[in-house]
């Protein structure tokens, strides 16, 4: 179960990282910033692609109430051919970033000067036979000026103000074809979505949330019984596990201590019922966001559900 949770966590982290490296496009005109974003995008693909099945249909990741989509495939052609196709799709669909790049380019006096401008709307990088492309495409932002889009983003923290995110990573497959991972958004994607002072989203379906806690992460596969949730609480790790032992026992779950100890100082428990599994991990937390350091929750509680969606509490 821990291996599955690791894969799930990596996919959720990928969704957040893709959004953040796309947000790096706001460092417009800075070649170093674009290079950093391209390197981060490349590293992300190398880390996440091995976690996916060879061919994966459109999968929706719901992260703090925001939907991000992932798929993978094996296709014919070369890596550069695949990247060319993705870049062409990026270039064909206008966005406020593309409008800004064209405007800046038009203001330059010579073609040589324009050729030295870093593009704002499409980022591409290739190295060691692998490559990545990411961009924003128009969607509902078609015809919106860059200034208006940036103003909306500053107010709402919504990547959708800049367009719909498109990301593709490609590398050679063992059979001579190309493995591709694609990630994209459809509409809104708020970087800091919150509800009532905590991360937006939902709570576990098969286990209660920790007592006196604040939700930090809600991540699940839409339409599938898999999810990861994180909370901050002032209760001690020992008190948290006692709470879950009591609550899950009352709901007829069987508690199992993992055969391998958790990493660091976290304590873990696995609860099993009808082939459903819930993993609860509780440990000291010094990095919970949201206020002065001395007001942060003292314990980080992570809950993973495998096949638990719809189970009776």
Largest sheet: 12 strands, antiparallel
State the helix count. Answer: 7
Strand percent estimate: 25-35%
Widest β-sheet, arrangement of strands: 3-4-5-6-2-1-9-10-14-13-12-11
Overall shape: globular
Q: Unreliable segments (pLDDT under 50, ≥5 consecutive)?
A: 20-32, 95-119, 288-294
In total, the number of domains comes to 2
- Summing up helix and strand content along with how strands pair, one would put the structural category as alpha+beta
Could you give a short description of this structure?
This protein is an alpha+beta fold. It is built from 7 helices and 14 strands.
What layout of secondary structure does this protein have?
Blueprint: H1 2-23, H2 31-48, E1 56-63, E2 66-75, H3 79-92, H4 96-107, H5 111-115, E3 122-127, E4 130-137, H6 146-156, E5 164-172, E6 178-184, E7 194-195, E8 198-199, E9 213-221, E10 226-233, H7 237-250, E11 254-256, E12 267-273, E13 276-284, E14 299-306
Helix pairs in contact: 1-2
